[in-house]
Design brief:
- This protein is α+β, with helices and mostly antiparallel strands and about 180 residues long.
- It folds into two domains: about 1-70, Winged helix-like DNA-binding domain superfamily/Winged helix DNA-binding domain (Arc Repressor Mutant, subunit A, Orthogonal Bundle), CATH 1.10.10.10; about 85-175, Beta Polymerase, domain 2 (2-Layer Sandwich), CATH 3.30.460.
- The chain has helices at about 10-20, 30-35, 40-50, 75-85, 90-95, 130-145, 160-165; strands at about 25, 55-60, 65-70, 100-110, 120-125, 150-155, 170-175.
- It has a four-stranded mixed sheet, covered by helices on one side. The protein has a three-stranded antiparallel sheet with strand order 1-3-2.
- The longest helix has 15 residues, at about 130-145.
- The mean pLDDT is about 85.
Length: about 180
């Protein structure tokens, strides 16, 4: 859907990378490996986004690092558009708020890194979650957003953010009670 609005696949990947998770920081060679795009194409798009003020950069040694400019007036709007396009907005609005004692929801995996694989990986933290209802809602959501949703459910006392950080899952807090 966004491909008809933004024709550069490289730009779409960069927007997903930086605007879904504002904590993402990366440099050119790392982006080349992660996104599977050429350095020339990435450099052109990174420079355009930086010139527009959507990205900011800093250097360490001989590497130029990029991250999203969260103070840009369009940051929140672009973030909402990408949440809508990926289906995350629907998941948060429709499913998560109807589950009862849910406390936190984290996006993890490829999409949290800004790589759209067609799969949404979630970590759900809560008590007394109606699992059959959750499965029913996940099934409906998958059909509606045309993506596969995988999830892990933790009780609050067994969950530790450090566990998913250690596993290099790039957790992104999507929702909190």
């Amino acid at each position: 859907m966004i491909e008809s609005l933004i024709t550069s696949k490289t730009r779409i990947k960069l927007l997903l990378k930086f605007f879904l998770n504002s904590q993402n920081i990366s440099y050119l060679r790392n982006l080349e490996n992660e996104l599977g795009e050429s350095t020339n194409g990435l450099r052109v798009e990174l420079n355009r986004l930086e010139k527009a003020g959507l990205l900011k950069s800093f250097t360490e040694g001989n590497r130029k690092f990029f991250q999203v400019n969260t103070s840009h007036p369009l940051f929140k709007d672009l973030n909402k558009i990408l949440l809508k396009v990926t289906g995350l907005e629907y998941i948060v609005d429709y499913i998560l708020e109807r589950l009862g004692d849910l406390e936190e929801v984290y996006l993890v995996g490829k999409l949290a890194q800004g790589i759209d694989s067609g799969i949404i990986d979630l970590v759900l933290v809560g008590k007394n979650i109606n699992k059959p209802f959750l499965m029913e809602q996940i099934d409906k959501a998958e059909k509606r957003i045309d993506r596969k949703i995988r999830f892990v459910l933790f009780e609050p006392e067994e969950f530790s953010l450090d566990k998913i950080k250690e596993a290099d899952m790039h957790p992104l807090l999507l929702w909190k009670k």
